Amino acid sequence: MPRNAASKTSAKSSSAKAAPKTTSKGAQDLLELLKEDHKKVIKMFDQFEKMKEKEDDDQEAKQLLVETACAELTIHAQLEEELFYPVLREAIDDEDMLDEAEVEHNTAKQLITELAAMQPGDELYDAKFTVLGEYVKHHVQEEEKEMFQKAKKAKLDLVAMAEQVMERKMELREELGLDAEEEDEDAEPAPKKTSRKNVH
Hints:
single chain, mainly alpha, 72% helix
């Protein structure tokens, strides 16, 4: 996609320069933005576990929750791969950490692809989503404790990067047919007919 290529190029050229972090109080930095995404999907995995514990048999609600979480994870991974990891590779000397993060993304994407081809009630449906959740929680912990700390020390302009990520995120949400942002944490996501076909 030409749009992807343009985004990658602009991200590298503008953010790779190790500019000091903007200290403007009102602006959100990239790491805060990524942490918000992490919290949102972890909350969905926890909600799924509660449904299992209660033996909630609402297959439609379960499927919608799984599809929404998978769509959010797909967008999040793509944003990191396009706009965060390449800049970080240039700024820090830790190829192993970034290689492992990309392998973890690929494994999560494989589970997401498998879930997209399944229905609640299928054998291993619940197990696959539960394992995906465990995998994501482990990945999030490593990112927030190690990678984010190294990103802070690298003196990247995390505020400018956050702006690029937000812009790209809106494009990706539109491409996947998702609402602009479902920020109300307690609100049930509205059913979307288009989410299944595009989540991978």
